[in-house]
Structures are given as structure tokens and as C-alpha cells.
Amino acid sequence: xxxxxxxxxHDQHAVRRQKLAELRAGGTDPFRAEFRPxxxxxxxxxxxVDGQDNTVAVAVAGRLVTIRDMGKxxxxxxxxxxxxxxxxxxxxxxxxxxxxxxxxxxxxxxxxARGTLFRTKAGEVxxxxxxxxxxxxxxxxxxxxxxxxADPEQVYRQRYLDLVVNRESRKxxxxxxxxxxxxxxxxxxxxYIEVExxxxxxxxxxxxxxxxxxxxxxxxxxxxxxxxxxLYLKRMLVGGVDRxxxxxxxxxxxxxxxxxxxxxxxxELYEAYSDHxxxxxxxxxxxxxxxxxxxxxxxxxxxxxxxxxxxxGPWREATYKDLIRAETGDPDWFGRGRAEHVAAAAKLGLxxxxxxxxxxxxxxxxxxxxxxxxxxxxxxxxxxxxxCPLAKINRGxxxxxxxxxxxxxxxxxxxxxxxxxxxxxxxxxFERQAGGEPQSVDQDFLFALEHGMPPAGGxxxxxxxxxxxxTGAESIxxxxxxxxxxxxxxxxxxxx
Length: 496
Prior knowledge:
It is built from 15 helices and 18 strands. It is an alpha+beta fold. It folds into two domains: 8-142, CATH 2.40.50.140; 163-315 and 376-479, Bira Bifunctional Protein, Domain 2 (BirA Bifunctional Protein, domain 2, 2-Layer Sandwich). It is elongated. It starts with 10 loop residues before the first helix and ends in a 25-residue tail after the last helix.
């Protein structure tokens, strides 16, 4: 099955194929490999010295995205990793044959050029090309400049074209790379060690989620794609690695929405001799650092609410129970039974599934009514113990846990725990969550825990959601390079 739209093959493709044949017939290799640039576009611009035109020599390469034909000269722009760069080509400099060959090039072709830098009368740093070569012939045209990729789904299917023609999309996805880089450096500066843990796991543990399954032919066993990084990273704590993190792909065979994708990127980190309060300080420092180093500000617009998120201001703290009481207007909420909770949820316009337990009814109110309104950074503290079987019970309120969820922009960005390190309590909580299915309990992890794990704070950060927040993206798909899509000619599944 193909993801290429049927209408993309048209006359321009045939014309470009003919040009390719003519190039080859004339002895020109249209897919050369020996050109070596000396500068990216941004580096070339910075290399120019004002008042010293035509003194700095550069070799640059990129995709032709603009051509202005002025008869005996051409102003063109190429696009590379750092952006666009203008080239100036003159017939009397290149020579008649080379200039004629250049005029046969098409938008989308990838070229290399050598020359010197100068500043035009309009103030733009430009390469005065002394030579050029074709490095790759584009056999299909780029989307029209003013229309771009009109179909939102085509943006995701043909992300490579989106990166060429959509500056905002390109900026957003390059910003994502910088965000991850700053996070990694931030943690390494604080003596965290980055590790890699298995994607294929015999027990899908560390979260409550439906896994993807696969089969290992050599072992003759079924495995799960990991739904969390947690249990292997905690094994590292047992092994004496006191500060550990991983930035990895997570796979959950669940729904797709504006905030959910079945394959996503998670940062998980664990620090021995810390707790959830230590994680609060860490995440605040981390996100403030990311904002300032990547965006140059700690005030980030939030388009859907019209607010500006202030990462440098005070971060609110509120308990889960207090938020529920305020939303329902019922100070005795946690003393009432399921039937009363279901009736109250219905009055709030929420649908409750028949098999839900009482804590799930309450959590639906939090998820649908409270969390979307938490735009400014808010630590939601002391979650119900049923929601997090891997955290320590709060000593002051045994129905809750030493846990926070950091909510920003109406989304959960980072949950964090004071990690449970009592192997007997951990076993009991696992078995309660498993509902009598011992095969879903990671016995090897419990065995490791019995060797002693230091007290620790642990935290997960949804990288995709964080990137949505910091780039103003409306959908998680906008910050994932190649999100999962049904093939273009595939029929929807029953009920889809």
C-alpha cells in the first residue's frame, strides 16, 4: 500500500525525467557525492565581515527554493539545515555553458556552490558564486509556494516536504531537537548517567496501559513493547547507579487524540536519596533552563487559552482532594459513596462507564474538568493510592501517595513519586493492581528490590507534550516527525 497521493504524478514529473535523461546523455552525473560544504547557511552569514566584501570564501550546498531570473544573472536561495542562503550567479563569471546549464535547473534541485561573501544593497549576505554543481536532481516538484501542503494529513504523510515548505513546522521540529539536547545536558551537569533499557519486555510493567505484542522467533516467546521505562531504571538504583535517566520511545496500544499518540517519547529519571519534593525542585529548574536557553524567555504564549505561561513566576501547589472539593462544591466528597459520585459527575456533564470503580469516577472529574483549566504551572499533590502502585504512601493521609502531577497548559507534563522501596509493600500493591493475574507482576523486579533499593525520587516527563507547550503546537502530531497513520489506501477498521 502506498502513502503517495495518486495526483502527485503529473506533467512536471515527466519533464524532469526528460531533463534527467538529457543530463546523463550529456555525460553529467546528476547525483554527485564528492562536494564538501565548508559552511551551513547561518555560519556563512555570520562569517561575512562588514566592509570586506568578497574576501571570505565559502562552499555551500542546499535545495533550490527560490529562483529570480534577471537575464544575465540570477538571485537564488538554497535551503539547508540552518535555513536559507542567497546566491548570486552571473553569466560572465560562470561562463556561458555553465550559466546555460544552471538555467535548466528546477526548484527542488540540490546544488553545491563555491564563491565569496558580499552584502547586497538590500543588506542581505549573499554568496557570489564562482562555480556550482548539481548534486541531486529533484524528479518531483515541491508544493506550490503559496499553497504549500493544504491537506493536514499530507503534512504528516510527507513530512519531508513539510520541512522544506513550511517554516513554522521546520522551526518547531528543530526546536524540539534543541529542547531534548538542553534537557540531556542539564541532567548530565547534575551527575545523572544516561542508560538504555530494553524495548522488548516479557512483562509490560511500570504503568497501567495496553501494550503492543510481538513474537521473538529465536526464543519462541511473545514479548511486549515497553509501556514504561521505570522498572529497569530502578534496577539501576539497586545496582548502585544513584542518578540515572533515559530518553526513550514508549508504546501504548491505545487511542489517538490531540494529546495522545501510541508511540511517544518519555524522559524518566531516578535519583537516590531524593523524594517527590526533590523532584519538584528539579523539574522547575529544568523547565526554566529549557525555556531560557531554547526560547530566550521564561514567558511562553498559550494560544488556546490566550494566557502567557510564566515559568519564572510562582508555581502553584494544590492537593488532589482540595481541587476535587472545589470543583464539585462538596467539602464532604471523599466521605460519600460511588452512587453519589456518579450522580454528581453526571450533573457536571461527564459520562461514567458501568464498570468503573469509585476512584475512577473521581479521577474522571479531575481529568475532564480540572486538569484542562490548569494553565499556569501547578503541582497537584497527594494523588489517591489506587492511581500509582509504585509510590510511597503518604504518612499523614494513608489514602494518598507522596506523588505530584505537574500540570501546565491544561495537560499533565510530569508525574513524580517518592518511590516505593519496601519490597513487601510493593508486592502487595502490584498484586492488587494485577487483579489476581500473577503473570502480569514483574517478579524479577520484586526480586531485585529485595536486595535493597535506596530511597529515591523518580519522575517522568512527556517530551512530546512539553514540545507542544513550548512551541505552541495544537496537536501532538505536530511535534512528532513521523506520527503513525493509516496507509492512504487502507480501509478504516470496523468501528474506526
